[in-house]
């Protein structure tokens, strides 16, 4: 089976609860939909998230350029990934090029699993099983008195037992007020994660972290710039609440650097940042060797399969950002992601919706 084309389409997808974090707002989801086509008629599907509309066209260009490198190659995901990385040794693969490479890798693994008529998790040697999830679709930065208004709705969407609240307001008293209001509404039986979205200085992070230590938070995520591993390690040593990082790790090699620095208690790679399925599997091996709990960031459709084969599987971050263009969005039942029992990762496009949101 040989690759004939990479077809990439940019869309702007409406969001049910537009994100508003300390690092900025995202009114709509800019996604690039990827179809990896083969001469056997098998098509691998994946999508990537470009953060801003302005990056849609450059990402599409990167995907088509990388696709030209592998046209005619056999559908062997590990060989495809190695070839592209070798060809890009001097340029390297951070930023949009890395995202495009990860998107192709995800689509290649989807096609690989479809060719075997297996769900991705099974093609990777695992089995379908529930994956514990938390709802990350709400509790954004807002006036503290309004933050908790949607708690019941968020929990009810999949009988969730865990939520994430965003913090990082200029006035920490408002952060504390928001956390306490949410905790009062959910009680002790529901886990509450928190995320500063890289908004603090190291000293401020230590001060706020210590103040939050008695608030019953499950973790504190990305208090400072993501690649300041020494600073993260200092915070982790000074704050009792576990520190979570990892969504911005650009490779398994970067994850190894963070682990060596003892930068965090928990890690949550993002499949499009860490290098697609191939990069994820290497990162999961690192987490396993070091005995570190590993969660996911975004992309629940494919991350559920990957967490199911991750030895130190921790939490799946549930986000519904792609639901509007998916034929069958991932389901959450009893607080767990339900991995679909169909070939590939389960992604198929709702073509009517794609046409509606397509950017020409």
From TrEMBL:
GO biological process terms held by the UniProt record: amino acid catabolic process; carbohydrate catabolic process
Q: Which residues cross the membrane?
A: none
Q: Kindly give the SMART domains that the UniProt entry links to this protein.
A: MR_MLE
Mandelate racemase/muconate lactonizing enzyme C-terminal domain residues are 144-242
One Pfam family name is MR_MLE_C
Gene3D superfamilies, alphabetized: Enolase-like C-terminal domain, Enolase-like, N-terminal domain
* Cofactor(s) for this UniProt protein: Mg(2+)
InterPro entries in the record, alphabetically? Enolase-like_C_sf, Enolase-like_N, Enolase_C-like, Mandel_Rmase/mucon_lact_enz_CS, Mandelate_racemase_C, Mandelate_racemase_N_dom, RHMD-like
Question: Any idea which UniProt keywords this protein has?
Answer: Magnesium, Metal-binding
Q: Which GO terms describe its molecular function?
A: hydro-lyase activity; magnesium ion binding
UniProt-recorded name of the protein: Mandelate racemase
Give the originating organism: Entotheonella factor
